[in-house]
Amino acid sequence: MKLLYLDTETTGLTDNSAIVQIAGAIEIDGEVVEWFNIRCKPHVGADISENALQTIGLTLEELNKEQSPADALKELESIFSKYVDRYDKNDKLIMICHNYPFDFRMLFNFYNRLNNKYMGSFLDFKLNVCTLNLIRSLQVIGILPILENNKLETWCKHFNVKLENAHDALEDIRATREVYLNIAKLLKKS
């Protein structure tokens, strides 16, 4: 099985917000074969929230020194191409994110903004895991406790997962993977 743990950092929450960081891990049959951390400047005309910039800890000036979104997408697809045959409909990465709908939507918009309609060449659109929704489901059936909230940081504390710099996509995705593995262990025991 080919898994893609993925997290994005953006300039806001709207559909016109820009991805400025994409980080992830590609795991094949239980072994991480690659970690990646891609940064780029916002696209022209992007919605940019001051709160989002504060959250990610970067200024617009710092972001504008990064590579173009087009170059970032080329870098991302070159990584995906190492592990997936884009022409084989059965050879795709299964995305795992803490808030899958958000990261998927932002990545989908990123591709579309660059006139690239081939995100599905690399990703399985039918099969994915949202650790946030998984946690909520397990809370409902009593396998996981109801905590103060379901933020990644809160679940990291619960599972004793180290998270030093929340809202850095690479740190977040390392933590997401560890939270997911802890949940998987619980489920296997159940």
TrEMBL record:
SUPFAM superfamilies, alphabetized: Ribonuclease H-like
Keyword presence, Nuclease: yes
GO MF, any single term: exonuclease activity
Exonuclease domain ranges (all copies): 2-189
Keywords: Exonuclease, Hydrolase, Nuclease
Cell division recorded as keyword: no
Domain of life per record: Bacteria
InterPro entries: Ribonucl_H, RNaseH-like_sf, RNaseH_sf
Pfam family membership, one: RNase_T
Protein's UniProt name: 3'-5' exonuclease
